[in-house]
Amino acid sequence: MNIEELKSELCDVCHCMWQQGWVAANDGNVSVLLDDGQILCTPSGVSKREITPDMLIIVDREGHVISGERRASTELAMHLRCYKERPDVKAVVHAHPPMSTSFAVANVPLDEYGLIEAILNFGTVPIAEYAVPGSDEVPEVVAPWIVHHDAVLLRAHGALTVGCDLKTAYYRMESLEHFAKITLCTKLLGGAKELSRDQIDVLIDRRTSFYHLTGRHPGYEKLHQ
Fold first, then answer.
1. Mean pLDDT over residues 155-166, rounded?
2. Which of 28, 66, 106, 221 has the greatest number of beta carbons closer than 10 A?
3. Interatomic CA distance for residues 118 and 122, integer angstroms
4. CB 178: neighbour CB atoms within 10 A?
């Protein structure tokens, strides 16, 4: 995919985020790691509804703008840290999907093993400690979790997903919000009836070989230490 096609895809993702109601006003940010090591990303202060390819910027691995006329997002450091910690990650999506963010605000992790798709995609989704958005603390609190997880809730803030490409990172955010909706409904019905350890192990073992899912999966043991 050439740079113009990638810019178009990134804008499509932003528009979908707005249409889904995951962002309001100038919320959220998206980035993609280019083959040359530079990073294509959304700028600061632009609604995802209105973003166009010419508004996108390219930054280096230190976050300096090397192409484009707009400023980088104050949350770019979080993206840069994801790329640093995870060589397999090629795209990062940050948004405020209402249901997932509600769990982050309530400080309730998505840690039930009752939904097959969630087990396959995420294992569980932890909550990173509180940090002021745009501060140097944000990448520090995200780093320990993103090493083992493809989705992380940000305490009192929103959600973060990563992927081997932009579409995967976006779909993980979509799956995360779906997981959060089901989890809330399940809690209203009395709580999840979790699968057995043997059933969970089979799903984890078949995650890559049968379902061809990329990314990290911390496994049942690590999540229940």
1. 97
2. 28
3. 5
4. 17
